[in-house]
Amino acid sequence: MEQDRIKDKALYFAGILSMCILLVSVAYFFFLRTIQIDLQKSISLHYTGENGMASLEVEVIGDDLNQRVQEFLDTVLFEVSPNTNLSNGDVITITATYDENLAQRYHYEVKNATMEITVEGLQDRYASLEQIDHDYLSAILDASETYVWDHENDIFSLNHETSKEEQWELTRLQPCYGAFLKSKSTSASDRVIQIYQLDFKQNDQVFTLYYLVCVPEINDGMEIQTQDIFGERAYLSDAEIESGDYASYVNRVFGQQYQIESIDLSALDESQ
User: Fold this and answer.
1) Cβ atoms of residues 148 and 196 within 8 Å
2) Pairing relation of β-strands 55-60 and 191-202?
3) Shared domain check, 222 and 93
């Protein structure tokens, strides 16, 4: 009987001791232990622009982290220096600021609050039209034509007054001229433009206009930024239309800002 009571007390105190050890361990693990947070492992780098004219945006990644760490990371802000006209090989400094009180409360030791990185992976511009990959150039011109078909109603309504009852249809889309425009400054991207003759028809009526489509950001990344394609009416003179001198119009509009190389559209079609 006495032995049973001693055994019960021993088990009781052992349970109490285990509980205390558990509580101390939990308190240490969650509240007292210093945790290192390496900011260099918690960031994502996003470059905008091309080699020689890029900038950098730094974002925190951490959706899969625990709630406290995420709460802390949400306070982190980054400053990049320098952050204009970046080129491959440039060394830049990223400096982080954060809520120091929160870091102290949660016993966070922050590593790499200041870090240096070397810029890499930026896309290069083409020196001339002949450097542009044939398939890439064809895809650019196809995207230009698709833009016209996708926006035919807007193009017509912005350039011709008509009533809602009238039903006009784009019946002819004729490429007239294409060119590679190489920017003379780093502040504007290189681009490919194409001029089309558009014929809209309703019954026996025909409305003709000349329309210029611009595909910007032409570089050796060979991506087409379809969301950035835009168009505008080409106000050619009667003499330019009659003679087919579209190059004079393009030079008049873009010659001061760009070096212009005409694209041989017929040769491009024959090679496809």
Assistant:
1) yes
2) unpaired
3) no
pLDDT at residue number 17: 54
Select from 152, 157, 143 the least CA-distant residue to 229: 143
- The pTM of the full predicted model, rounded to 2 decimals, is 0.74
- Using DSSP, state whether 81 is helix, strand or coil: strand
Among the listed residues 266, 225, 260, 247, the one whose alpha carbon sits nearest the alpha carbon of residue 139:
225
Instruction: Tell me the pLDDT tens digit for each residue of 103-130.
Output: 899 889 999 999 999 999 999 999 999 9
Cα(209)–Cα(230) distance, rounded to whole angstroms? 16
Specify the DSSP class assigned to residue 116: E
In the chain, DSSP finds a helix count (H) and a strand count (E) of: 8, 12
Provide the token pair at 113.
Answer: 């609050």
Inside any domain, residue 123: no
Residue 161 per-residue DSSP state = -
How much of the chain exceeds pLDDT 90, in percent?
68
Q: Is the peptide bond before 175 cis (omega within 30 degrees of 0)?
A: no
- pLDDT bin (cut points 50, 70, 90) of residue 267 is confident
Cα separation of 108 and 34, whole Å?
Answer: 6
Residue with structure tokens 């004219």? Answer: 53
Using left for φ > 0, alpha for ψ between -120 and 50, and beta otherwise, residue 99 falls in beta
59 within domain boundaries: yes
Q: Report CA-CA distances (Å) from 23 to 17, 19, 29, 108.
A: 10, 6, 10, 21
Do 178 and 135 reside in the same domain of the chain? yes
pLDDT of amino acid 24: 47
